[in-house]
Design a protein that fits this description.
With about 240 residues, the chain is of the alpha/beta class. It is built from 8 helices and 6 strands, in the order αβαβαβαβαβααβα. Helix 2 links the parallel strand 1 and strand 2. The mean pLDDT is about 95.
């Protein structure tokens, strides 16, 4: 989803600084942006490393200028039943990447975002932030936290002209879900998704882009499922 978001923003004329710990994957994203005539910069950063986040944001600002739109999309999903031996590690890693890094990226970018009174933050959570699945409590809690962070910051940063919204993707074809056999995906979609299919990363990207358009300037604190109707059907 992150690469789809980066490509779409670049196609719309944004100067994009893409952050990822995967150097090769990041290079491919930036190369694709350039091939499409856009402007992209790669910033290699591990968002689980709190000390490197401010450095990464400074590098991004040096490359593309002050940040007008911050999209928090990085995430991990580590299966972790509550009684499992690796639960503590899964909890710490998931919280560091999925929740704490979002808050730290906002803090590091805030001077840029608030400078003209019209900055925009789009946090990417999940439909797990609106419900729950057994065996995924670290992930589910982190995504509920992103929803709460979005609402809290929308209230806090509104007086500074910064909007904060949240997109909650449902079942999407991504690297995170590619390990699920196709027949299981199809069965799940038939049972749980009114549109009866998985979504595509580009469909999420377009919703993220819509929240960064001038027409969304009075939208803040919104939690928007992009899930083919999953929450409406099962919520």
């Amino acid at each position: 989803m992150g690469s789809a978001i980066a490509r779409l923003f670049a196609e719309e004329g944004a100067r994009v600084a893409a952050l990822d710990r995967d150097r090769e994957g990041l290079a491919a994203v930036v190369e694709g942006i350039g091939a499409g005539g856009g402007r992209g910069t790669a910033v290699v950063a591990d968002l689980a490393d709190r000390s490197g986040i401010a450095v990464a944001v400074a590098e991004a600002e040096a490359a593309v200028g002050p940040i007008d739109v911050l999209v928090n999309d990085a995430g991990v999903s580590l299966p972790a039943p509550i009684g499992a031996g690796g639960y503590e590690v899964a909890w710490a890693t998931t919280m560091a990447v999925n929740l704490e890094a979002q808050a730290r990226l906002v803090r590091a970018s805030l001077a840029s975002l608030a400078r003209a009174g019209e900055g925009q933050i789009v946090n990417v959570a999940s439909t797990e932030g609106l419900g729950a699945t057994a065996g995924l409590s670290p992930y589910t809690v982190s995504k509920h936290g992103v929803v709460g962070l979005t609402r809290a910051l929308a209230v806090e940063l509104g007086p500074r002209g910064v909007t904060v919204n949240c997109v909650c993707p449902g079942p999407i074809h991504t690297k995170m879900t590619e390990v699920i056999p196709d027949e299981h995906k199809a069965r799940f979609a038939r049972r749980r998704v009114p549109l009866r299919r998985y979504g595509e990363p580009e469909e999420v990207a377009h919703v993220v882009l819509s929240l960064a358009q001038p027409g969304a300037s009075f939208v803040t604190g919104a939690i928007i499922p992009v899930d083919g109707g999953l929450v409406a059907m099962n919520g």
